[in-house]
Amino acid sequence: MAHGVESRVPFLDHRIVEFCFRLPAAHKISQGQRKRVLREAAKDYLPAMVLERKDKKVFVSKVDWLQLRFHSQELRDMVSSQTMQQLPWVRSNRLSSFVENFIKGRHRNSSAVWRLYTAWRWLEITPFRQPGVPC
C-alpha cells in the first residue's frame, strides 16, 4: 500500500454513484460476474488479466481489527449528523435503529455499518450536492 495508487477516488463522485443506483441489476451483475458495466467500459483499455481477475482475498477484514462497537459514540454522532439527515435516500429513524441495534449486539452487520461510517466521513469533507446542481 505504501507504493500503491488508489484508483477508487473517481468513483466517489455523486453523479457516478447516482447513475449506478439507477442501473438495472442485470447491468451490475451478469453470470456471477460483478461490476459488469465497469468491465465493459474498460475492456478496450485494460488487459484481460486485469478484467478477469477474481477478488483479492489477502487483506485482513476490518471486522478482524476494528471493534466498531467500541466507537458507539462516534456511530451515534454519525446518525444524528446534519450530513446524514440531509441525504434524501436515508430514512433517519431506520438508520438510527440499524446502528443502535448493531451497537447493542442485536445484529453483526459490521460491514454495512463500516460503509455507512466511511460514507459519512467522506461526505463530511465533500458536501452532498443535489442532483442536477453543477459542482
Residues in helix, %: 40-55%
* Estimated structural class: mainly alpha
In terms of per-residue confidence, which ranges show pLDDT below 50 for 5 or more consecutive residues? Answer: none
Cα-to-Cα separation, first versus last residue: 31 Å
Query: How would you describe the oligomerization state of the chains in this entry?
Result: single chain
Mean pLDDT rating? 80
Shape: elongated
What is the number of E strands?
2
Helix-strand blueprint:
Blueprint: H1 14-22, H2 25-28, E1 29-30, E2 33-34, H3 36-42, H4 48-51, H5 62-65, H6 72-80, H7 82-86, H8 92-103, H9 110-125
Antiparallel strand pairs: 1-2
Helix pairs in contact: 6-8
Give a quick precis of the structure.
With 135 residues, the chain is mainly α. Helix content is 52%, strand content 3%.
Which features would summarize this protein structure in a list?
single chain, 135 residues, mainly alpha, two-stranded antiparallel sheet, 9 helices
Describe the protein's architecture and organization.
The chain has 135 residues and is an all-alpha fold. It has two domains: 9-51, no CATH class; 62-125, no CATH class. Helix content is 52%, strand content 3%. The protein has nine helices and two strands.
